[in-house]
Design brief:
By secondary structure, the chain is α+β, with helices and mostly antiparallel strands. 15% of the residues lie in helices and 49% in strands.
Length: 192
C-alpha cells in the first residue's frame, strides 16, 4: 500500500511539474516582465523646455537622448557575447545636479519593447577615473510610471560607464562598453 502511495505521489508530482513548466512557458498568469539591454547615447544638448523644472522636479543641467539595444548572453554562464543586436527602445533623459555632488536628479520618458514609460529617480557617481583615467562610472535607479494597461509599475536600474568619447560604442580609452547596461522590471495587474 505504501508503494502504491509513493508511486501515485511521484506521478502527481511529475504531472504538476510538467503543468507548471507549460504554464510558465505560455505566460499565463504572468505578472512580471524583465528586460536586460544596453543603452547608447546619441545626443546631448543644453536642456530644452522638455526638461522644465515643473516637469522634472529639479533644475536640469543636461538633456540626453539614448537608444536601447538588445544584448545576447551565453545560456550556460550568463556572459554577454553581443551588445548591439537590435534597437528595442529609446530614452529621452533630463539630468540635474542635486545638493550632493555625487548625485544627479534624473527624469526620463521613453519606450522599452514598444511600451511607453516615465521614469523618475537618480544617478550616483560611483567612481571617477576607474578602472582607468578618463572613465566615469555611475549607477542609476528610476521608478517607472505612465505605463499602459495592464502594467501597474516598475523600475529601471543601470550600471553606466562613460568615457572621453561621449557618443556611440567606441570608448577612450578603448575596450569598454558604454553607456549603460540596464535591467527593467515591469509589473502587470494580476488577472482574476
Amino acid at each position: 500500500m505504501r508503494f502504491a502511495g509513493l508511486v501515485l505521489s511521484v506521478i502527481a508530482g511529475a504531472l504538476l511539474f510538467s503543468h507548471a513548466r507549460a504554464w510558465a512557458q505560455t505566460g499565463e498568469g504572468e505578472v512580471e516582465e524583465i528586460y536586460v539591454a544596453r543603452t547608447l547615447r546619441v545626443s546631448r544638448v543644453v536642456p530644452s523646455d522638455y526638461c522644465a523644472p515643473t516637469k522634472t522636479g529639479f533644475a536640469p543641467a543636461l538633456e540626453d537622448r539614448l537608444v536601447i539595444k538588445s544584448i545576447t548572453t551565453r545560456p550556460e554562464n550568463g556572459r554577454m557575447t553581443a551588445t548591439n543586436d537590435k534597437d528595442i527602445g529609446d530614452m529621452h533623459v533630463c539630468i540635474g545636479q542635486a545638493m550632493d555632488p555625487t548625485l544627479l536628479g534624473t527624469y526620463s520618458e521613453g519606450h522599452i519593447a514598444g511600451i511607453p514609460y516615465v521614469g523618475v529617480g537618480d544617478c550616483r557617481l560611483v567612481r571617477g577615473n576607474q578602472p582607468e583615467e578618463g572613465l566615469l562610472t555611475h549607477r542609476c535607479w528610476l521608478s517607472l510610471s505612465g505605463l499602459p494597461e495592464p502594467y501597474v509599475g516598475g523600475f529601471l536600474v543601470s550600471s553606466s560607464l562613460y568615457s572621453r568619447t561621449p557618443f556611440g560604442t567606441e570608448t577612450s580609452p578603448p575596450g569598454y562598453n558604454q553607456a549603460a547596461f540596464i535591467l527593467v522590471r515591469l509589473w502587470k495587474r494580476r488577472q482574476p
